[in-house]
Design a protein that fits this description.
Layout (H helix, E strand, L loop, with lengths): L4 H9 L1 H8 L10 E2 L2 E3 L10 H8 L11 E2 L10 H14 L5 E4 L21 E4 L2 H6 L1 H4 L8 E4 L2 H5 L3 E6 L5 H9 L17 E5 L8 H4 L12 H15 L8 H6 L3 H6 L2 H13 L13 E6 L4 H15 L3 E6 L9 H18 L2 H23 L8 H22 L2 E5 L5 H11 L3 E4 L9 H10 L1
Parallel strand pairs: 1-3, 4-7, 7-8, 9-10, 9-12, 10-11
Antiparallel strand pairs: 2-6, 5-6
Helix pairs in contact: 1-19, 10-13, 15-16, 15-17
Length: about 450
């Protein structure tokens, strides 16, 4: 996690558990844990290993006994994988089976690392990872070439033997696969659909992940839908527009009939209905003369490009309205900077030192070039890569800051600030010193574990 984010995430997520344990209200000393999976060939100390993740985010903070922790090991020799998997299954049986199985879900419908076409009675084994799974892992590994292509996973059959299954999904990127898992055919094409057969399974979803379920996307099918509310009529009209791939103006009676919405257009004449909804949607757009004028505007951005991606046009209008604007960035964003950018930076520095005749600076830069070049060579030779050395991280931070300053200067007179992470104290200090009258917070909130959502939690706090 980037600067300060993990602390915020932990305090918000499992903070209550740690507090209750400290107060003696919860006890993990008799709990036995079995993790679902682990990347094959990935060392347990690697930053993307599930062994390390569990230690960093749970086991190191609760009183669970080390001998009661079971996590698949990615470094099992190939000729011992079958025995390892069998022993893991036996350990589960010896513990009395799994009482509560906690699952996530992949965009391809996998649970654990049981990829599409996994059999319902499959047991723990070594598997090849699906291309969708590999692409989704790029965010953690930064480069698809560094992602392990195999994993050891608990089987579908093992999961189905759990007394209770809880599946948690968040974000609109999971909406379509949740719909297939809950409402679609039960088959290996979407492995999570097997859970339809489990006697005690509960899906816990946020609004975004549940958005394509029929009950949510077409609530009028249940009957008793309140058509007197314009927002409800707008939801239905927009749904038909999206499904039929037509502009609202071009919708016809037959389009509504296809989606069981004839009662709506019969109660509200179609032409008037379309005009009403278009006006309703237009009213959501804020004209420039309604935006703040001559105010102190603070824009809080997780990374040094989020304000331009999500607020670029508005920033231009705020400048036109003579506002004093500060953009404050809450993470370093170094994970988005490619290694080649660091190389360009140090080569430019080296050329600058030679051109200015600064021999002392040139010598230091030569030493830095040699150190970074040697590190990058070692990193390229490593199968799964490893964290950047301090010098790399420092330069990547400078690159991101320079990009932010350049973008702010391009737009106009915008002040750039850089916070030491998503830290509540730092945000509060900025509020006190800048004294904003208007605050904008940028970001994508559909992923609850993203820096965007974590930064938003810190702002709220």
């Amino acid at each position: 996690a980037e600067d300060g984010i993990r602390d915020v995430e932990r305090s918000r997520g499992l903070g209550d558990v740690y507090k209750r344990q400290k107060e003696g209200k919860v006890d993990f000393s008799q709990v036995i844990t079995f993790n679902l999976d682990e990347y094959y060939e990935l060392p347990p100390t690697h930053e993307n290993s599930y062994n390390r993740f569990m230690d960093d985010n749970l086991f190191n903070f609760i009183n669970v006994k080390r001998e009661n922790i079971h996590v698949p090991q990615g470094l099992v020799p190939p000729d011992k994988i079958d025995a390892f998997c069998q022993n893991y299954e036996e350990a589960i049986k010896k513990a009395g089976g799994v009482d509560i199985q906690l699952l996530g879900i992949g965009r391809d419908g996998h649970i654990g690392f049981n990829e599409p076409l996994s059999k319902e009675d499959s047991r723990m084994r070594l598997v090849e990872l699906d291309p969708i799974t590999l692409n989704d892992a790029v965010r953690e590994f930064s480069n698809i070439k560094l992602i392990p292509t195999k994993a050891i996973t608990m089987g579908v059959g093992t999961i189905m033997e759990a007394k209770k299954v809880i599946l948690i999904a968040t974000g609109d990127h999971k909406a379509s696969i949740i719909k297939e898992s809950v409402e679609g055919e039960c088959s290996g094409k979407v492995v999570a659909s097997y859970l339809q057969k489990h006697k005690n399974t509960t899906f816990y979803l946020d609004k975004a992940a549940a958005s394509e379920l029929t009950k949510v996307s077409r609530p009028w099918l249940d009957g008793g839908f309140d058509w007197s509310k314009v927002e409800n009529r707008a939801k239905a009209v927009c749904f038909v527009s999206e499904q039929q791939k037509k502009a609202i103006e071009g919708l016809e009676m037959k389009d509504f009939e296809l989606h069981s919405l004839l009662p709506l257009v019969q109660a509200h004449e179609l032409g008037n209905l379309k005009k009403e909804i278009i006006s309703f949607l237009k009213a959501k757009i804020i004209p420039i003369d309604h935006l703040p004028t001559k105010q102190k505007v603070l824009v809080l951005s997780p990374h040094s490009d989020d304000e331009f991606i999500s607020l670029g046009g508005t920033l231009q209008k705020l400048l036109a309205n003579s506002n004093e604007i500060m953009c404050a960035h809450m993470t370093s964003g170094t994970s988005s900077v490619e290694d080649c950018e660091v190389q360009k930076f140090i080569y430019a520095k080296q050329l600058h030192d030679v051109a200015t005749g600064d021999k002392a600076a040139a010598q230091k830069t030569i030493e830095l070039v040699e150190k970074i070049t040697a590190f990058l060579q070692k990193k390229r030779e490593s199968r799964f890569g490893f964290p950047d050395i301090d010098e790399m991280t420092a330069i990547k931070s400078i690159v991101r800051k320079a990009e932010a300053i350049s973008a702010c200067n391009y737009l106009g007179n915008i002040t750039c600030a850089f916070l030491p992470g998503a830290k509540v104290d730092a945000i509060w200090e900025l509020f006190k010193t800048f004294k904003p009258t208007v605050i904008y917070a940028c970001g994508d909130l559909t992923d609850p574990n993203s820096p965007h959502r974590i930064c938003w939690r810190a702002i709220q706090k």
